[in-house]
C-alpha cells in the first residue's frame, strides 16, 4: 500500500508543475490579444459610418406593399357570395376588421373604405358612417339578391 501512496504523490507533483506553466502561457496570450482587440475596436468604429448610407437607401423603399382597391373589393364580393350560398340574408363588414384580416399592421384605411363604398348595392345600409375614411365604417350588405341587375348604392342615393 505504501507504494500506491508514492505513486499518487508522484503523479500529483507533475500536475502541479504543469499547472503553473499553463497559467503563465495564457497570460502572454491575453497580452497578445489586447493589441488586436484595440485594432478591431478601431475598425468597428469606422464600419458604422460606411453602413449608414445603406440604411438610408433601405428606408426609401416601402417596407410592405399595400393591398389594392380591387383586391379589397374582390374579398368583399367573395364574402357576399359566400354568405349568399349559405342562404344568409346579410353580412356586416367593418373597415378596421377587414383591413386587419388582409394586412395587419398596415394603415390602408382610405383604400378599404373606397372598396366598401363601391361594393354597396341598392338596399345596402351604413351601420356606422363617417365623412372621412375611418376604421369604424360599418356596412350591412344584403346577400339575398346579388344579381347583376341590381343597381349600385351610389346610383340610387347619388
The total count of helices amounts to 5
Helix content: 55-70%
Uncertain stretches: 9-19
Alpha-beta classification: mainly alpha
- Specify the oligomeric state: single chain
SSE succession:
HHEHHEEH
Strand order of the largest sheet: 1-3-2
Distance between the termini: 112 Å
In percent, how much strand structure appears in the residues? 5-15%
The gyration radius over C-alpha positions equals 37 Å
Number of strands: 3
Shape: globular
Instruction: Determine the mean pLDDT.
Output: 75
How many strands, what sense, and barrel or not for the largest sheet?
3 strands, antiparallel
Give a short overview.
With 158 residues, the protein is mainly alpha-helical.
What does this 3D model show about the protein?
The protein has helices at residues 2-60, 69-85, 95-103, 109-118, 153-157, and strands spanning 90-94, 125-128, 138-142. By secondary structure, it is mostly helical. The radius of gyration is 37 Å and the shape is globular. Residues 9-19 have low confidence and may be disordered.
Amino acid at each position: 500500500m505504501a507504494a500506491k501512496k508514492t505513486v499518487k504523490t508522484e503523479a500529483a507533483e507533475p500536475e502541479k508543475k504543469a499547472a503553473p506553466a499553463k497559467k503563465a502561457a495564457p497570460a502572454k496570450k491575453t497580452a497578445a490579444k489586447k493589441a488586436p482587440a484595440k485594432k478591431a475596436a478601431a475598425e468597428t468604429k469606422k464600419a458604422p459610418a460606411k453602413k449608414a448610407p445603406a440604411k438610408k437607401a433601405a428606408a426609401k423603399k416601402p417596407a410592405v406593399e399595400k393591398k389594392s382597391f380591387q383586391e379589397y373589393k374582390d374579398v368583399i364580393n367573395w364574402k357576399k357570395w359566400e354568405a349568399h350560398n349559405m342562404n344568409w340574408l346579410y353580412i356586416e363588414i367593418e373597415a378596421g376588421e377587414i383591413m386587419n384580416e388582409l394586412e395587419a399592421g398596415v394603415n390602408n384605411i382610405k383604400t378599404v373604405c373606397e372598396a366598401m363604398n363601391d361594393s354597396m348595392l341598392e338596399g345596402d345600409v351604413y351601420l356606422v358612417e363617417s365623412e372621412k375614411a375611418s376604421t369604424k365604417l360599418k356596412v350591412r350588405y344584403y346577400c339575398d339578391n346579388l344579381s347583376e341587375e341590381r343597381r349600385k348604392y351610389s346610383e340610387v342615393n347619388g
